[in-house]
């Protein structure tokens, strides 16, 4: 399966390597570098690169390429999924997954990689288990370790590894027992120039932060479970129960985890919470173009639209812009031609707008394409799909936990065509 | 950075050297080093020398080189902070010093120093620096007490042992010792490292260790041994046969932990030994949801291959009714009924159905690889009308990471060519976003093109229009090709597309225009008649188009249809003659072609031009063009020698040519199994295993029937393991000796004789629980497992039942030599009486065995009717024969009376407390029951009411965390009083072994007749599989007690 792993930074240096079988020379990465050079954007490097003797499967996260070397047939998704799991683990351990963080914790990284794969086959990828095997580095622990000489490495096989609930460690104790659930929905949409929706879908997740003592058994029920037609679960969720009663019943892992993710597809009607009026024109022969943009709320169920950020890739012919926002700040990068406007909160009484002119390259003909506008926003306390949690119950433990549920809607890939 | 802090004198010198320092000064220092190093390492010197030479010419380039090449080759480490110019030198000095320093630290007495040193060594390894010379110093620490230090040493060993084989041998004895460690984590990691050391000499040791670990008590260690199999195999292929034996044994393992790893080993070592899978097929299917996600992927892909060799083609009929194919997706129900009504002979094998049913829930997995592997399983195995259930899940994966999208889209692209209907409802999910990466965009385009049909083409074309305007020109070009494909596939829109493409010819972007020209050329070729206008238009554009492929296309079109544009073509040729020398090769070739064709059709106007172009071509630098020119000249210009050929020139050059077929690049990808690497790269990857075609006739299905083949095996697939340990026990001997005469015998007084017979045989569920009561952990573990097996498989489909029926007689035959036995059994009472006297007899392993078998076949848990049925069926078998190993129930009294199964009610622990009563006790008979249970809903007899003189006890593992202590397993016991007088003071008496920590329930004061109560116990099995024995005491007229043993549930069922 996975033979070796190379970590490559954005400037093309290998800063970490790990081999699970015989050592593969790092020159194998030359094929990767070639592909990297050929690609116009970092994202365009193909995830699977065949070389004469190996296959390179890579993922790009946090501007680091994780390049796995494969020698024989293996499902590529297997490797890709594993690499993403590695990144998630690093992020979990170090807070961020950057080159510096990895270099600083190279020993922990190595210990982790050693535990996660045996002979190229995943061994322990569950974060609760890993944390029992290798304690995450904290400042306090580092100090304690240097004084007492104790280590970060657990001596016992984590109980979860063998138990029926491998995702939860045993003997968890908290003074404050609390369980928080965040229902976060992202809306992906493509809106055409006339403002009608071409496609819109909602990708939702329920992220949980559960800090409960002992072995609680939770059930979560929804007001309208029928919305959850296309779901994927954390392994802790009892699937049978869901099938039969549409209730989520589970023994949660300790700490943060993603309970489920769901998808409300384009076939359902999705309310679009904002609208954009735009008027971007280039006149033939003149070196001026007009730019007008107005934002407004629409179907937001009375909740305010916040943290609005508009960005747009203007055509190459645009030299500079001279625009006036009624609120917020805007920037235009003449090199990358990226216009971004940080609007902030939309006030329904006074709609924010951005108006002004663009100067074009003199003599050049008018640009063919009109830019697409990408929008980001947040709406607190509302889930666009209308999903609502009914109640959360706990069994198996005697104390009363503190429960909290939060809803949020965000823009995912929300784009508007202007032509 | 650690290394940074450990700078040494020399290094500091370099650091302080300003960049401006003269080259001369630098090189003198370098020479100093060179001298000091000379005695140390010759190779090093030469390198240094070479470096210095190059340095004197170019200081900068030197240091670069030093930073990369020499660092790796010489095995030293650069100090990251050293200045650019000094880096090359700093490297030599510092590293030597540093490694010395590391060596000292490693040899010191202080743990902390050693740890610090090892951390730095690991840092070196991580950066790909060579630290192999520290090997002797490091390997000494392999026996360290400090776990972290040990682990780091392991990391080092695994990395360098291959290079330093002799020294690596020093560590072996440590591992051998650790393999016997009581801590399973240490055993496992010792095996991991031992097997990762790629030193051929230790192959026998590894082999031994693997064999031992394969029968380890801890499933975690067994899992490790499965991994070790692959490592050993890659080290020494001669061990294959021995390893297959181990694999065979591990395949029978019931632990979900082991399943994935052993299948992986199977795939690596002996993927062709399908026969090993037969007996484990149903078990694997049933365990699948509980296996960890990575194992699921491997098992599913193995089962896909397996199924293709074992089952018949479920698509056969559909091949006949081809037109209906498409409709099947939409009207699956209808299709189904038709399937039946039209009397199709195809009947799906129940095992085939089992696989499909058990993989389906995994479509909800969060692991994209699992979802994909289920999807490919359905694609390759499911009847056509069921495949569409994977669509939704695959589309969901598109929201995942970019790389995941890429792979999933590729697979969808392949699927959508064959089965448009599957993805058409989700068309909008494939709309391209401006933020997508280029390869994602082109895949989406590919899929949209495949999905296009008469109904949705207008929507798709509208969408394509916006793509053409995209700033990503490569993508825009791709879109134009896609439009071309739509135009050819759907004749209604050909004209619209063509007009649209012609409009694009006036686009400002060159790539767009060029691509349009190429596509138009292909389209025109399909229906050239009405389109001379377009050709003319293109000729006008010719001057503005610079992309070679487009120019070549226009020239070709001119030549091909020169008769339709008789005026323009010669003019174009004239222009080309002028610019011939500056054109690209491909354009030149087409110019020559054009010239030849015009010469043939219109020689009056073009003769001279042709001559001129041919002359130019004759002296071209490119030999293709020279060749072509020579060929054309001979062909078209008549002379004496080749007159024969030139007669045919017209027919050769202007023959009607078939139109190109525009088709997807994913057209033939389906020859590879979906989801595989080979599919992604569209070539056969090494180690790719072909998916075989469906067999015309299904191979014998009965091979998968675990129990029929070999009566002995039916009980415990893990026979091999126990077989060895068994004979040592005297009690076991009894089983064998009995086997001939086996009737129902009960060890009535069985307290001392461990082997007793279970009266509870009537209950198929409870039978499974009967076990060898001995604490011999191995045998109990076995029985535990096998019973789990029976439970699992009990969930199999109804059709199984039928199967069972047919099989039962068969089994009888094979199994039982004495018909008399069965008779007597059927009149259970007689038999009982006869046997009751012989107390020492272990009566029936056979009983429990055969029962459990039958259990495996039927849905015994699903309903009581089933149970009864099983019961009656199973009975005849009961006494038939004894298997080697057995689970036994020792019962004081045996009455084969029908038993009403009591389902224990589940009460919350707090309630239980209230219900508990009080009294005192009296101990009489000891009953032995060992029971396995995994599924919470399922309860097992602990004490039968007959044996318990009216008190019956059932237990189940509710799979809840235990309240009393986290390490304890909670056991729920429900006690029922079936007598007509109250039972008092029910409590737990003596227990054994003492090592087990038990939390007993409070004494129940009084249990009224017909009343039942549920209590909870906590038992700490210490992660072992030993049985927990205890006495259950109560007071009443007839004293009663039971020595009960409970087994730890080694495998589990998951939330699914």
UniProtKB/TrEMBL annotation, chain A:
It is a peripheral membrane protein. One of its GO terms (cellular component) is Golgi apparatus. Its main location: Golgi. PROSITE patterns: CLAT_ADAPTOR_M_1, CLAT_ADAPTOR_M_2, MHD. It comes from the Eukaryota. It is found in: Golgi apparatus; Cytoplasmic vesicle membrane. Keywords: Cytoplasmic vesicle, Golgi apparatus, Membrane, Protein transport, Transport. InterPro entries: Adaptor_comp_med_subunit, AP2_Mu_C_sf, AP_mu_sigma_su, Clathrin_mu, Clathrin_mu_CS, Longin-like_dom_sf, MHD. One of its GO terms (biological process) is vesicle-mediated transport. Residues 176-417 form the MHD domain. Belongs to the adaptor complexes medium subunit family. This is AP-3 complex subunit mu-2. It comes from Oncorhynchus mykiss.
TrEMBL record, chain B:
Keywords: Membrane, Protein transport, Transmembrane, Transmembrane helix, Transport. One of its GO terms (cellular component) is AP-3 adaptor complex. Residues 881-1026 form the AP-3 complex subunit beta C-terminal domain. Residues 717-882 are annotated as: Disordered. The keyword Transport applies. It is found in: Endomembrane system. Residues 793-803, 854-882 have a biased composition (Basic and acidic residues). The chain crosses the membrane at residues 12-34. It comes from the Eukaryota. One of its GO terms (biological process) is intracellular protein transport. Residues 748-763, 776-792 have a biased composition (Low complexity). Pfam families: Adaptin_N, AP3B1_C. Belongs to the adaptor complexes large subunit family. This is AP-3 complex subunit beta. It comes from Oncorhynchus mykiss (Rainbow trout).
């Amino acid at each position: 399966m996975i033979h070796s792993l190379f970590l490559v930074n954005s400037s093309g240096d290998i800063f970490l390597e790990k081999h699970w079988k015989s050592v593969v020379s790092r020159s194998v990465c030359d094929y990767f570098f070639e592909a990297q050079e050929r690609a116009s954007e970092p994202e365009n490097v193909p995830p699977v690169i065949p070389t004469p003797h190996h296959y390179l499967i890579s993922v790009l996260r946090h501007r680091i390429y994780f390049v796995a070397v494969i020698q024989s047939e293996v499902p590529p998704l297997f490797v890709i999924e594993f690499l993403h799991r590695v990144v998630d683990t690093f992020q979990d351990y170090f807070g961020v997954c950057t080159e510096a963080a990895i270099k600083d914790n190279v020993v922990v990284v190595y210990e982790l990689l050693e535990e996660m794969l045996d002979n190229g086959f995943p061994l322990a990828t569950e974060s609760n288990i890993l944390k029992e095997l290798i304690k995450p580095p904290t400042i306090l622990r580092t100090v304690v370790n240097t004084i007492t000489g104790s280590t970060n490495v657990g001596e016992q096989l984590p109980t979860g590894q063998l138990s029926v609930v491998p995702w939860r460690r045993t003997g968890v104790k908290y003074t404050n027992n609390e369980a928080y659930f965040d229902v976060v929905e992202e809306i992906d949409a493509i809106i055409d120039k006339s403002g009608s929706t071409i496609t819109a879908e909602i990708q939702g997740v329920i992220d949980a932060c559960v800090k409960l003592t002992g072995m609680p058994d939770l059930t979560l029920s929804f007001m309208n479970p029928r919305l959850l037609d296309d779901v994927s679960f954390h392994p802790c969720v009892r699937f049978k129960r869901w099938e039969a009663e549409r209730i989520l019943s589970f023994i949660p892992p300790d700490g943060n985890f993603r309970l489920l993710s769901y998808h409300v597809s384009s076939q359902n009607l999705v309310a679009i919470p904002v609208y954009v009026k735009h008027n971007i024109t280039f006149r033939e022969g003149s070196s001026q173009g007009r730019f007008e943009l107005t934002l407004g709320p629409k179907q937001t169920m009375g909740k305010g639209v916040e943290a609005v950020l508009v960005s747009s890739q203007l055509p190459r012919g645009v030299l500079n812009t001279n625009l006036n926002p009624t609120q917020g700040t805007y920037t235009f990068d003449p090199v990358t031609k990226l216009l971004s406007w940080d609007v902030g909160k939309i006030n329904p009484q006074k709609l924010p707008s951005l108006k002004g002119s663009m100067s074009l390259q003199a003599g050049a003909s008018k640009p063919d394409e009109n830019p697409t506008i990408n929008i980001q926003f947040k709406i607190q306390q509302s889930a666009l799909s209308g999903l609502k949690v009914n109640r959360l119950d706990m069994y198996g433990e005697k104390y009363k936990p503190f429960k909290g549920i939060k809803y949020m809607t965000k823009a995912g890939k929300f784009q508007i065509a202007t032509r | 950075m650690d290394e940074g802090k450990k700078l040494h004198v020399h290094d500091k010198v370099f650091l302080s050297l300003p960049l401006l320092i003269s080259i001369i000064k630098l090189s003198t220092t370098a020479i100093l080093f060179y001298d000091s190093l000379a005695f140390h390492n010759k190779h090093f010197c030469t390198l240094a020398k070479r470096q210095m030479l190059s340095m004197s010419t170019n200081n900068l380039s030197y240091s670069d080189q030093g930073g990369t090449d020499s660092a790796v080759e010489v095995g030293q480490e650069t100090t990251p902070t050293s200045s650019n110019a000094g880096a090359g030198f700093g490297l030599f000095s510092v590293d030597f010093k540093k490694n010395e320093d590391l060596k000292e630290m490693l040899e010191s007495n202080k743990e902390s120093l050693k740890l610090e040193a090892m951390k730095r060594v690991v840092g070196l390894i991580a950066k790909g620096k060579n630290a192999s010379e520290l090997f002797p110093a490091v390997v000494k620490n392999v026996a360290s007490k400090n776990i972290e230090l040990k682990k780091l040493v392991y990391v080092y060993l695994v990395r360098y042992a291959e290079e330093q084989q002799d020294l690596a041998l020093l560590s072996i004895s440590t591992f051998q010792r650790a393999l016997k460690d009581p801590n399973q984590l240490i055993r496992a990691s010792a095996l991991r490292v031992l097997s990762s050391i790629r030193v051929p000499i230790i192959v026998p040791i590894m082999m031994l260790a693997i064999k031992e670990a394969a029968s380890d008590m801890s499933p975690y260690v067994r899992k490790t041994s499965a991994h070790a199999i692959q490592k050993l195999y890659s080290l020494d292929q001669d061990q294959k046969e021995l390893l297959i034996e181990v694999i065979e044994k591990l395949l029978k393992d019931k632990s979900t932990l082991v399943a994935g790893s052993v299948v992986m080993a199977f795939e690596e070592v002996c993927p062709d030994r399908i026969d090993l899978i037969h007996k484990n097929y149903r078990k694997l299917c049933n365990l699948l949801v509980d296996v960890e996600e990575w194992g699921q992927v491997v098992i599913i892909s193995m089962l896909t291959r397996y199924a293709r060799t074992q089952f018949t083609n479920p698509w056969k009929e559909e091949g006949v009714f081809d037109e209906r194919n498409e409709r099947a997706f939409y009207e699956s129900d209808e299709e189904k009924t038709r399937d039946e009504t039209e009397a199709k002979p195809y009947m799906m094998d129940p095992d085939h159905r089992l696989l499909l049913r058990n993989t389906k829930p995994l479509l909800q997995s969060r692991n994209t690889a699992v979802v994909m592997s289920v999807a490919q399983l359905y694609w390759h195995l499911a009847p056509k009308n069921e495949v569409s259930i994977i669509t939704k899940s695959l589309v969901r994966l598109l929201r995942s990471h970019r790389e995941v999208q890429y792979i999933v889209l590729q697979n969808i692209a392949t699927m959508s060519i064959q089965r448009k209907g599957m993805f058409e409802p989700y068309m909008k999910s494939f709309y391209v976003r401006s933020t997508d990466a280029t390869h994602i965009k082109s895949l989406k385009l590919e899929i949209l093109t495949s999905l296009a049909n008469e109904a949705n083409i207008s929507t798709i074309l509208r969408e394509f229009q916006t793509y053409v305007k995209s700033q990503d020109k490569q993508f825009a070009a791709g879109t134009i090709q896609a439009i071309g494909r739509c135009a050819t596939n759907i004749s209604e829109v050909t004209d619209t597309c063509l007009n649209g493409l012609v409009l694009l010819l006036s686009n400002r972007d060159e790539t767009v225009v060029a691509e349009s020209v190429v596509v138009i050329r292909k389209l025109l070729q399909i229906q050239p008649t009405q389109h001379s206008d377009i050709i003319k238009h293109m000729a006008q554009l010719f001057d503005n188009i610079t992309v070679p492929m487009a120019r070549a296309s226009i020239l070709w079109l001119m030549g091909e249809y020169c008769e339709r544009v008789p005026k323009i073509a010669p003019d174009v040729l004239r222009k080309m003659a002028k610019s011939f020398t500056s054109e690209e090769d491909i354009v030149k070739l087409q110019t020559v072609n054009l010239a030849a064709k015009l010469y043939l059709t219109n020689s009056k106007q073009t003769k001279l031009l042709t001559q001129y172009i041919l002359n130019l071509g004759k002296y071209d630098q490119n030999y293709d063009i020279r060749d072509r020119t020579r060929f054309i000249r001979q062909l078209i210009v008549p002379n004496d020698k080749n007159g024969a050929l030139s007669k045919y020139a017209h027919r050769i050059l202007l023959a009607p040519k078939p139109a190109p077929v525009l088709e997807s690049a994913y057209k033939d990808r389906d020859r590879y199994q979906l989801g595989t690497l080979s599919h992604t790269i569209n070539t056969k990857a090494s180690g790719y295993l072909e998916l075989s075609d469906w067999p015309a006739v299904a191979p014998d299905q009965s091979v998968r029937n675990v129990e029929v083949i070999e009566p002995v095996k039916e009980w415990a697939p893990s026979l091999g393991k126990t077989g060895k340990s068994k004979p040592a026990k005297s009690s076991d001997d009894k089983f064998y000796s009995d086997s001939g005469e086996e009737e129902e015998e009960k060890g009535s007084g069985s307290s001392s004789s461990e082997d007793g017979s279970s009266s509870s045989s009537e209950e198929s569920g409870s039978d499974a629980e009967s076990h060898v009561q001995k604490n011999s952990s191995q045998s109990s573990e076995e029985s535990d497992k096998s019973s789990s097996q029976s439970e699992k498989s009990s969930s199999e489909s109804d059709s199984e039942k039928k199967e069972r029926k047919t099989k039962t007689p068969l089994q009888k035959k094979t199994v039982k030599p004495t018909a008399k036995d069965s008779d007597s059994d059927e009149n259970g009472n007689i038999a009982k009486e006869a046997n009751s006297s012989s107390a020492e007899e272990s009566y029936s392993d056979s009983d429990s065995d055969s029962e459990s078998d039958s259990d495996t076949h039927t849905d015994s848990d699903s309903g009581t009717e089933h149970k009864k049925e099983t019961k009656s069926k199973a009975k005849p078998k009961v006494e038939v024969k004894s298997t080697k190993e057995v689970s036994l129930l020792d019962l004081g009294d045996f009455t084969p009376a029908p038993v009403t199964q009591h389902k224990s009610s589940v009460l919350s622990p707090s309630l239980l407390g209230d219900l508990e009563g009080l009294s005192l006790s009296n101990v009489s008979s000891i009953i032995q029951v060992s029971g396995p249970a995994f599924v919470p809903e399922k309860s097992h007899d602990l004490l039968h009411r007959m044996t318990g003189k009216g008190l019956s006890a059932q237990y189940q593992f509710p799979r809840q965390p235990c309240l009393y202590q986290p390490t304890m397993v909670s056991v729920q016991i429900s006690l029922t009083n079936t007598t007509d007088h109250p039972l008092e003071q029910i409590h737990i008496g003596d227990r054994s072994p003492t090592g087990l920590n038990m939390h007993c329930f409070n004494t129940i004061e009084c249990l009224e007749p017909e009343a039942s109560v549920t209590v909870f116990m906590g038992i700490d099995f210490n992660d072992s599989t030993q049985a927990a024995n205890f006495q259950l005491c109560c007071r009443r007229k007839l004293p009663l007690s039971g020595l009960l043993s409970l087994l730890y549930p080694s495998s589990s069922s998951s939330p699914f």
